[in-house]
Amino acid sequence: MIYLVIFIAYTLLLFYGSYFVFSDFFLKVICAADTDKKEIAISFDDGPAADYTPEILSLLKQYQVEAAFFCIGSRIAGNENLLMQLQEEGHVIGNHSYSHHFWFDLFSAKKMLADLQRMDIAVKDVTGSVPRMFRPPYGVTNPNLRKAIQAGNYIPVGWNVRSMDTVIKDPAKLLNKVLKALKPGAILLFHDTSKTTLAILPAFLKQAGDKGYKIIRLDKLLKLKAYA
């Protein structure tokens, strides 16, 4: 019986370490800035997306906000203009893998690294820059990913405010959730593939400002070199 309890406890520990990006169980992931100032960063995953990224960029320009976009390499083809627009308008591009494969976390370290480097090439071919900041697909970490990150000299960056905008479809509920979670040094995770995020973005940007928060570009907030 004691062995079963130990096995279950160990399994739960591994699950926690793998699926909670802030756990630092397998590798250190930066999930917030160490500051008491009311400064935050916003980030968008899974683009570029022709449906919503242009509108999000337009709103960010209107509010003079710089954001981080953790892009999927396979979505760059056909959206090269959007990727260039991200860079030209002062946003920073991060690596969110090339494939964002459902079973990415089961890849070997070698296959993971090849996937990340393929994403680097896709970004460089369009913008001339190679991202250093990397956000794990689904926020999952494991020993193979640690090896790939170390081999590629990436900087793993997560979040400490997950909007859940891929699940929450009620704009009022989503807006309330993220505003309540604001705190100095927060890194917010949105998706530029989310209609709900697009719907709340103007109100969020205004109300965050009304609360005294300044939105700083992620690499600047963390004092990181964004590109190799």
From the spread of the alpha carbons, the general shape counts as globular
Number of helical elements = 8
Order of helices and strands: HEHEHEHEHEEHEHEH
Class by alpha and beta content: alpha/beta
Average of pLDDT: 93
User: What can be said about the biggest beta sheet?
Assistant: 6 strands, parallel
CATH superfamily: Glycoside hydrolase/deacetylase
Instruction: Please mark out the parts with pLDDT under 50 across 5 or more consecutive residues, or reply none.
Output: 7-17
Number of domains: 1
- Tell me the Rg in angstroms: 18 Å
CATH C-level name: Alpha Beta
CATH topology: the name is TIM Barrel
Approximate helicity band = 40-55%
Ends apart, CA distance between termini: 52 Å
The counted number of beta strands is 8
CATH architecture: Alpha-Beta Barrel
Percent in strands: 5-15%
Summarize the structure.
This protein is an alpha/beta fold and 228 residues long. The protein has helices spanning 2-19, 53-62, 80-88, 109-127, 143-152, 171-180, 195-210, 218-222, and strands spanning 39-45, 68-71, 92-95, 133-134, 155-156, 161-162, 187-191, 214-215.
Q: What are the salient characteristics of this protein?
A:
two-stranded parallel ribbon; six-stranded parallel beta sheet; alpha/beta; 228 residues
Structural account:
By secondary structure, this protein is of the alpha/beta class. It is built from 8 helices and 8 strands. The strands form 2 sheets. Strands 1, 2, 3, 6, 7 and 8 form a 6-stranded parallel β-sheet that branches. The protein is globular, with a radius of gyration of 18 Å. The model is unreliable at 7-17 (pLDDT under 50).
